[in-house]
Each structure stands twice: as structure tokens, then as C-alpha cells.
Amino acid sequence: MIFQRLKYLFGLENLEKLNNAKVAVIGLGGVGGITAISLARSGVGNIIICDYDVVDITNINRQIIANIKNIGRLKTDVLEEMILEINPNCKVTKISQKVNDSLFLENPNFIIDCIDDIKSKKYLIEQCLTRKIKFISSMGAAKKVDPSKIAVVKLSKTSYDPIAKILRNHFKNNDFYVVSSTEKPAKIDVLGSYMNVVSTFGLFLSDYIIKCIIRR
Fold first, then answer.
1. pLDDT tens-place string over residues 76-86
2. Are the C-beta atoms of residues 47 and 92 closer than 8 Å to each other?
3. CATH numbers and ranges of domains, the chain
């Protein structure tokens, strides 16, 4: 049994909850890729993946879906293959475009926001709040090198995070959960990223939703 070791920890009833859940991961970069793989390895049976982008050589240093062989391929196509190689019974729904209303036609139970585009991020969060869909949002992982300073917190409790600052100003009356780092960003002009940090963001995101599914 693929998920025998998980069954020991969570029990058969919770394993069935994970199998029946439908989770959407929006944005499949360094954070989103590891998030989706973690969901697949944790027995989530229905995964929606959404991203319009293709794999680029600059993704290789931090994105689990990126390697020399798949440069130029749609990230959704690559990730679907990886998920099905882990669990052939997982139902994968691909949306190979920027997030829009078509996502909600798939009726996700949970949404994980890994978008780095602010306009799309605001749209997704607004839709989740309006439609009352359980979600968690990733803040900025770039320019940071210390995984130990990452945590799940309320948006109002974030610090040293440019994306969180924008969202705090925009969503003044909604205090939702996010994954953020309290580390001060490196003083560089470009968005340098480190796999150990972006992967930890992804694991915190998937863990939050997994625990929501099994009510822990």
C-alpha cells in the first residue's frame, strides 16, 4: 500500500478524508511545486494545479519540477506527470493559464495560493474570502536564506515581507493565515531564491491544509 506509513500516523479514516479532498495549488514555482508534491505524497486524491508558465533554465536551482530535460515544457504538464508517478490513482486537473473564474468551476475544497503576481494574488484571495473557501497564502520567499524563520501566522503578524505589507494594506478587514518569514530580506536588487527556503514555505503550506482536512 502506497500510504501504509501515513496510515500508521493518521489512521484509515483520515487517510480516506485525504483521498476524498480536492485541493488546488495556484502557482507552480519553487513554493507551489513542492506544495503539490507534498499533497500527492500525503494521499490527497484530487489535486488541481494552475500555472500558465513553462520551465526555464533559471528555475533549476529551486524548483522541484525543473531539470535540463523539461526546459520549455508547461509546468502543469511536468507536475501532472510527477504526481501520477507518485500516485497513479490521484485525479489531477490542469489549468494551464493565469488563475481566473474557471478554477471555481472545479469546486475545490481547499486552495493554496503560491502566486507571485500581486494582481492575481489579490484576485484569488478576494475570491476565496467571498466564496468562503478555506485557503492559505504564501508570502515572499525571495531574498531569504534561513528556513528556521518561516511560520504559519495571521497576515497581521507578518514582518519584513514586502508582499505581506501590500496585502495588509489591501485586506484591512480580513485577517487570514499565511506562510511568511521574519527574516530581513537580503540587500540585493534582484529576486535571488534558495531552494531550502522556498521548499520549506511549500511544506508549511501543504501541512496546514492537510491538518485542516483531517481536523488537527
1. 999 999 999 99
2. yes
3. 4-140+193-213 (3.40.50.720)
